[in-house]
Design a protein that fits this description.
The protein is α+β, with helices and mostly antiparallel strands and 173 residues long. The protein has helices at residues 3-35, 66-88, 93-116, 137-155, 168-172, and strands spanning 40-43, 47-54, 119-127, 130-131. The protein has one domain (3-163). It has 5 helices and 4 strands, in the order αββααββαα.
């Protein structure tokens, strides 16, 4: 498959993965809100469902900034799409996966901010008083994309076979 013929497949994977994350995020939030009115242990104290209305950003930073964060999310979503158009379709397929996860997560949390004024978080993990930040499917997708970006940055050209490395003209365009 040539690079030109793989572009539609890359776009389909990018959009499809983003849509899958978005739908899974929104459906899981609806299900949790309808099913778990009170904190519920799933795996003892280790894993619980606890509904939290996060008016801030990641890890609760920038509290009560839903509108500002929504505006920033729209800019970031645009940047993700532009970056995929420029690099995601030419580089290793893991970049397409990472960008699709990031886009889906950003869209999921943006939908909450616009619709509710906060993001619904519900996965609570930890032991006793030592708890991780409560998160949702969108947050998990965003975190996974960050791990993939780090892996791509560390492995660099090792991800691409020598015969698939971008040519000089491809890196300039």
């Amino acid at each position: 498959m040539t690079r030109a013929s793989s572009r539609p497949a890359r776009w389909a994977a990018f959009v499809g993965l983003a849509a899958l994350v978005f739908v899974a995020d929104q459906l899981s939030k609806q299900w949790v809100l309808a099913t778990f009115p009170a904190p519920t242990e799933i795996v003892g104290d280790l894993l619980r469902i606890v509904i939290v209305h996060n008016t801030g950003g990641i890890f609760g930073l920038f509290g009560d900034s839903a509108l500002l964060l929504a505006a920033a999310s729209i800019v970031v979503i645009g940047l993700i799409v532009v970056y995929h158009a420029r690099e995601g379709i030419r580089q290793h397929w893991l970049l397409t996966v990472a960008l699709g996860l990031l886009l889906g997560g950003a869209l999921g949390n943006l939908a909450d901010r616009l619709r509710l004024g906060y993001v619904v978080d519900f996965v609570d993990m930890g032991i006793g008083d030592f708890r991780w930040y409560t998160f949702n499917v969108a947050d998990a997708a965003i975190s996974t994309s960050i791990v993939l970006f780090i892996g791509i940055a560390l492995l660099g050209e090792k991800l691409l076979p020598a015969d698939r490395l971008p040519t000089a003209s491809e890196t300039r365009s």
